[in-house]
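Let us work through a complete example step by step.
Step 1: write down the sequence.
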Amino acid sequence: MIPPMTDLAGKTMLVTGAGGGMGREVALALALRGAFVIAHGRSAQRVQATLEAIAHAGGKAEAAAFDLASLQSIRDGAALVVSRHARLDALVNNAGFWSGPREVTVDGFEKTWAVNTLAPFALWQALLKPLRAAKGRVVNVASLEHKNGRIRWEDLQRERGFGARPAYQQSKLALVMLTNELARREPGLVAMSLHPGVIATELFRNMPWIVGLVIGAFCPSPQKGARCIWRLAAEAEFAGTTGAYFHRFKKQLPHKDARDPASCARLWAVVAKQAGT
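Step 2: predict the structure and record it as tokens.
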């Protein structure tokens, strides 16, 4: 248990995927340190246990219910957040998706791309006003898998030869690239991406059962994985590290495409058009 602290008093922070796993642990850690936490889930019921844990520990939080696989739901959810909060000190895009068979969202996008790439982009764009007001941080949970990714420019939706792992790798590479472009476009904010480690969470529920068994037995707990996420969102030592990629607490060079400003700008234009921003 992280001891209660007050250094985040007066700050407001939104965590996606806060209904369980690392998202719940990040939300609880931030609340225990004094932040008002907006705990996101697909429904209010999914984050109820998180809200109760925060209240029991003496923290303050509210639910934000919207579906990351629907752009309209993201817009509606973000609009409600903006109407309630003039300042947002941190947005933690923690929620992620690893596909089984190829799925398509209501907007017509392959679901891995929609949840892991489009959703964080659409959310931070919709929350720019309160983020700018607070000179806030955007912390995007990526993956070491991004280093093996390839942007399939001619087939971003993986309609030809779909594989869950290449789709995930591409989506996380795109997220790191967009994080770096956000840092360039919004110098008043701090934008970072990270790999928290291979953590025993529900991300792997669509993998073969033996993979889930091994991960559950040998990989760190969500609480351990969450530590680097909430520290990047909260600690003063990371306040000036915009445009950085971390492997846990260590800054590392990301994929070469994420270091190429032209590729990052090109991807931003494509994703902005998809997201309708």
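Step 3: interpret the result. The longest helix spans residues 164-185.
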